[in-house]
């Protein structure tokens, strides 16, 4: 039995370079959000699949780290995570092959060594990290 099912839709019209699409989510947070070749491959304003993956990974990792810190009886005061998703050409095909998670956390009463141990464990156990395991996922963790 699934814990949760979430859906999103994408509608694309036209060719790859001259077409465009819209993405919507079940919750309505994204509703007909436009995306296109230029927002994905030319860094023009607008969203793209890699940005959405980065948002998902940053959010999931922050929650996983909070859960692990709380289990350690050292709940965080704050966690600030950035996920950088890299899209490279691999064997002639665009491929998400790297993700860098950068986290800064304020955790009263926790030493740096234990923080890094917990942060690394959260990286390995975050559901989105497990989903994206085909990519190289690195972590830069800072205890504030």
From TrEMBL:
InterPro entries in the record: KH_dom-like_a/b (IPR015946), OsmC/Ohr_fam (IPR003718), OsmC/Ohrsf (IPR036102), OsmC_Ohr_Peroxiredoxin (IPR052707), Peroxiredoxin_OsmC (IPR019904)
GO term, biological process aspect, one: response to oxidative stress
Domain of life: Bacteria
Any one GO molecular function term: peroxidase activity
Pfam families referenced in this protein's UniProt entry, alphabetically: OsmC
PANTHER family per the UniProt record, alphabetical: OSMOTICALLY INDUCIBLE FAMILY PROTEIN
Name of this protein: OsmC family protein
Taxonomic lineage of the native organism: Bacteria, Pseudomonadati, Acidobacteriota, Terriglobia, Terriglobales
């Amino acid at each position: 039995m699934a814990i949760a099912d979430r859906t999103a839709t994408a509608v694309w019209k036209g060719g790859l370079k001259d077409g465009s699409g819209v993405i919507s989510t079940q919750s309505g947070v994204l509703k007909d959000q436009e995306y296109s070749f230029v927002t994905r491959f030319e860094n023009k304003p607008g969203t793209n699949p890699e940005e959405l993956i980065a948002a998902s990974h940053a959010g999931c990792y922050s929650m996983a780290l909070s859960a692990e810190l709380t289990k350690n009886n050292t709940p965080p005061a704050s966690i600030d995570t950035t996920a950088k998703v890299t899209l490279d050409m691999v064997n002639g095909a665009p491929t998400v092959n790297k993700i860098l998670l950068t986290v800064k956390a304020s955790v009263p009463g926790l030493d740096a060594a234990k923080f890094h141990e917990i942060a690394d464990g959260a990286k390995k156990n975050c559901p989105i990290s497990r989903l994206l395991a085909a990519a190289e996922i690195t972590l830069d963790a800072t205890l504030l």
